[in-house]
Amino acid sequence: MSHRRQFLAGLLLGACALSPALAQQNVTRIVVPFAAGGGTDQYCRILAQELNKHGMNVIIENKPGASGILAADYVARSKPDGQTVLVSSLGTLANNIALYDKLPYDPAKDFASVTQIAYQPSVIVGRTDLPYKNIKEMVAYAKANPGKINRGSPGASILTNLAPIAFERAQGFSTTHIPFNGDAPALQALLGGQIDSHGTSITGSLPYIKAGKLRVLGVMDDQRLPQVPDAPTFKEMGYDMVATLWYSFSVPAGTPRAAIDKLNKAVNQVIADPEFVARARAIGMEPRGSTPEELDRFVKTESDRWLPLLQSLNIPKQGT
Fold it and tell me: How far is it, in rounded angstroms, from Cα 263 to Cα 97?
């Protein structure tokens, strides 16, 4: 082989060797703090598909556990280059402070805001074989049968656990809370009879509702959900309870503003597309974007609303 051919062959081999590494450097990882199959995971996978169509190289990583702490700590310790993104929420950015003795990350210092991505009302679902068909009947049953209702949630600090706790305290009854690492395992436990009700979003539970296996006992919003128009709201049954789940993107502190702006622009373009909005609404999600500054203000408003309520419940703190 001539020197020229040897040189060209060497270049080709070098390119082949480098290409996987280069490809890996360009991957954006969206870290979901819940098990695969839940509502948040479903929405993020739809979002990732569309971002990939727009020229990005996005993958989903599920890191469930400890009310989002494992995922949040993982992202906080990642390289601040805009390529590791946390699906953040009220739990990871605020409520965990009040529920755990010590966090391995600082919600205020370890993350930079990118954008909001979606929101949806909380719901309480139960099996169709339960002796109660709505929240009002459940309250009466719980008072007449103390300790009989086992209630699931995707995690202790998640709004779909905290709102039911606040509601129970206000109405003078209690359930036994059983936390899970996301909606998917909790819904399987509900279907299997290990728990009786579950605080969740409509997204993960909708297929089972349509199949006649689960029923929405109540919607924590001012109006009924179009996906389940027969399901009553808490307000219709005489209870003043509104609790909206929201989701956002956060990156490690120190991420360059240029990287944040690039991701913000890409996400907000996708979630404003009418076809994407239709796909999201079909699974019960309402897309909503923002600037990083708008997200900062929103998180503060939500924290100021829910943290005092959470602290007033005097829930014993957990170890991490």
Answer: 28
Q: Is residue 211 classed exposed, middle or buried when 0-12, 13-18 and 19+ CB atoms within 10 A define those classes?
A: exposed
Identify residue 226 by its one-letter amino acid code: P
- Give the list of residues 6+ apart from residue 185 with CB closer than 8 angstroms, or none: 35
CA dist., res. 43 & res. 45, Å (int): 5
Listed in sequence order, the DSSP H helices in the chain are 3-25, 39-53, 69-76, 90, 96-99, 135-144, 159-171, 183-191, 202-210, 257-271, 274-282, 292-312
Cβ burial 172-209 (10 Å sphere, 16+ → b, else e): ebebebbbbbbbbbbbbbbeeeebbbbbbbbbbbbebb
For residue 109, pLDDT beyond 50:
yes
Give the pLDDT band (50/70/90) at residue 320.
low
Please state the pTM of the whole predicted model: 0.80
DSSP string over 20-78: HHHHHHTPEEEEESS-TTSHHHHHHHHHHHHHHHTT--EEEEE---GGGHHHHHHHHTS
Q: Output the six-digit token pair for 290.
A: 């923002």
**For the packed helices 292-312 and 159-171, what is the interaxial angle rounded to 10 degrees?**
40
State how far the Cα of 137 lies from the Cα of 207, in Å rounded to an integer.
24
Contact (CB, 8 A) for 285 and 59: no
Report whether pLDDT(5) > 70: no
Q: Report pLDDT digits (tens) over 279-316.
A: 999 888 999 999 999 999 999 999 998 888 788 877 77
Q: Which two tokens stand for residue 87?
A: 């699906």
CA distance 249 to 84: 10
User: Of 158, 40, 44, 182, nearest to 94 (Cα)?
Assistant: 158
Mean pLDDT for 245-256 is 97
Which pLDDT value is given to residue 9?
45
Rounded to the nearest angstrom, the gap between the alpha carbon of residue 220 and the centroid of all alpha carbons in its chain is 17
